[in-house]
Amino acid sequence: MTVSHTSPTLSTFADDVVQHLSGERPRLNSKWFYDEQGNTLFQSIMQTQEYYLTDAEKEIYGSCGKDLLRYLDRQPFDLIELGAGDGTKTQHLIERLLAEKARFAYRPIDLNGSALEELSELINFRWPKLDFEPIQADYFEALNRLGNSSGGRRRLLLFPGANIGNYTPGEAVDMLKRLRQFLAPGDMLLTGFDLKKDPAVILAAYNDAAGYTAAFNLNLLTRINRELKADFVLDCWRHWETYDPVTGAAKSYLIPIEPQTVHIGAAGRSFNFRAWQPVEVEISQKYSLREIEGMADAAGFEFVRHFQDSQQYFTDSLWRV
Ligand code: AVI
Fold first, then answer.
1. Which of 191, 204, 266, 284 could potentially form a cystine with 250 if both were Cys, beta carbons 3.0 to 4.6 Å apart?
2. Of 62, 47, 48, 119, whose CA–CA distance to 92 is shortest?
């Protein structure tokens, strides 16, 4: 199975970095974390004992298949997955769906071509007869390609992994509204949300003892140095995590321990950083069940139900159009 490739251009990356660093509070966009090294580090994070999110969703995917089919009236459907990665988790859902004799086509979407290649190998090995077509693209570009009809078949859109948490709550509702436009009455959306819980558990998940999260965040500066010909002095930057239990925002910062002027060659721009001036690099928003139900309404969906893991750390929330 070949994966159709499209990559972000250098100028898109440079423009985005310059725009985010130019604000009054300098930031970087976490969507650029995922170069080859970033993907490897993210795999390591998911295997740490502190990062509970992956196992929680695996548990949910391993047990919600039968109920999902009931909500789809056991009719044939298209399973479209946004940010599929290498399918480590989704294979548990596919296994359950096939055990229930579900009839579906699987359309995973991801920007990461090598993860999709691995997913293709996995699917071809385990279920060679599954109607399967991976798409390497940005979510909306891929959904545009698929069009907003599946020829009368229902759509179950999967948005796994708490990826929605990497948007602010306002951006998340806008994103969900946009997804809604690709769905027709009767179609469903299953989104993974990380839940508000003991702040110590959340902070530990983004501050693992082995240092993978710190390396993952710092790798963004390495990527900017390499791809945009910049000169961040890596040794002078520290990873810092915060969690606000009121707003539910876990935020990652990179903080310079001494003043630095960084030149970004590809953009022809320089930026001055004061010592201890934080650069926000990621939000990982946590929600309550009630907040999620409100988001369904705000984005124009009907809330159907939550599927939670046994620790009640995480929910995959099912909504209908
Ligand atoms: C991909 N995303 C849902 C992860 C998260 O939990 O926000 C990214 C991550 N950042 C640090 N650890 C994991």
1. 284
2. 62
